[in-house]
């Protein structure tokens, strides 16, 4: 696994250093977009409970990544499901408000997490059990409008996209090593075709985004030139968990 105290981000005037804490915040948003959830519940209809969660396979690299995130952002790490899964969780209101401020600087890019964040913020403002109970089924009512907005207007890649993308790859990317050496990288997402298209354009891939079933879109890349782009990206904008281990194995066979 590659670990560096600095990464580089394109600010429009060439590549400039950002410190590790700032990188982790952007990476964290990508990881949340892929593997996280923002939850609002209630305790016996007496008060609201707020919770942010990332759940991953319980292996050393994922555990160490979540520890790194917790040191920068807050939260606690727990081993659950008979030691099969490791989760990062935040349920302290003060820490959640701090994380909302991170989302204000680096907004989530998936339609699902955007809807969850809006619902969380509204619940915090209203602080009403009655409002929550009346509106919890409407949490995703604006999701289709978010998706459709990109049918007529292009998705604008934000300045933090490179670091965000490494977090998203950590969640939803896959480096596949094949016996016949037609190695590949794939990434997919429910609903958000605009986001998979943005990733395709970012890596300058030419193959089509597949739609294997109704709401799922995926991009699978075999072309060596594009795979080199992806490898270089993931080395410059460091993967931090299980996918960092997969990348290192992938690189060893890819450059043989």
Report on this structure.
By secondary structure, the protein is of the alpha+beta class. It folds into two domains: 6-152, Endonuclease I-creI (Roll); 162-254, Roll (Endonuclease I-creI), CATH 3.10.28.10. Helices cover 48% and strands 24% of the residues. The protein contains ten helices and ten strands. The chain has helices spanning 20-35, 60-73, 93-105, 111-126, 129-135, 143-152, 161-172, 193-202, 224-236, 242-254; strands at 6-10, 15-19, 36-43, 47-57, 76-80, 85-90, 173-176, 184-190, 210-213, 216-221. The strands form three sheets. A four-stranded antiparallel sheet has the order 3-4-6-5. Strand 7 (173-176) and strand 8 (184-190) form a beta hairpin. Helix 1 crosses helix 7 and helix 4 (111-126) crosses helix 6 (143-152). The chain is globular, with a radius of gyration of 19 Å. The chain starts with 5 loop residues before the first strand and ends with a helix. Mean pLDDT is 93; it is low at 1-6 and 8-15.
Low-confidence stretches: 1-6, 8-15
Number of strands: 10
Largest sheet: 4 strands, antiparallel
Overall, the morphology is globular
Q: Helicity range of the residues?
A: 40-55%
Can you say what the CATH homologous superfamily of the largest domain is?
Homing endonucleases
CATH class label of the largest domain: Alpha Beta
In total, how many domains does the architecture comprise?
Answer: 2
Going by CATH, the architecture of the largest domain would be Roll
Query: Helix segment count?
Result: 10
């Amino acid at each position: 696994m590659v670990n560096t105290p600095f990464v580089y981000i394109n600010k429009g005037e060439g590549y400039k250093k950002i410190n590790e804490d700032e990188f982790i915040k952007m990476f964290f948003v990508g990881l949340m977009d892929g593997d996280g959830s923002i939850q609002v519940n209630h305790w016996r209809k007496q008060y609201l409970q707020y919770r942010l969660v990332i759940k991953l396979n319980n292996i050393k690299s994922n555990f160490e990544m979540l520890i790194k995130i917790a040191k920068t952002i807050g939260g606690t790490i727990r081993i659950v499901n008979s030691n099969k899964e490791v989760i990062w969780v935040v349920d302290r209101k003060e820490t959640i408000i701090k994380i909302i401020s991170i989302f204000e600087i680096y907004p989530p890019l998936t339609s699902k997490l955007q809807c969850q964040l809006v619902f969380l913020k509204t619940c915090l403002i209203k602080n009403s059990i009655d409002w929550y109970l009346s509106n919890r089924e409407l949490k995703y009512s604006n999701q289709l409008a978010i998706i459709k907005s990109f049918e007529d207007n292009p998705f604008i890649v934000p300045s933090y996209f490179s670091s965000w993308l490494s977090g998203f790859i950590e969640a939803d990317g896959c480096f596949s090593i094949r016996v016949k050496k037609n190695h590949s990288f794939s990434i997919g997402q429910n609903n958000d075709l605009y986001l998979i298209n943005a990733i395709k354009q970012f890596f300058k891939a030419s193959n089509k985004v597949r739609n294997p079933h109704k709401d799922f879109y995926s991009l699978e890349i075999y072309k060596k030139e594009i795979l080199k782009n992806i490898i270089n990206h993931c080395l410059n904008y460091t993967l931090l968990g299980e996918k960092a281990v997969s990348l290192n194995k992938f690189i060893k066979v890819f450059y043989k």
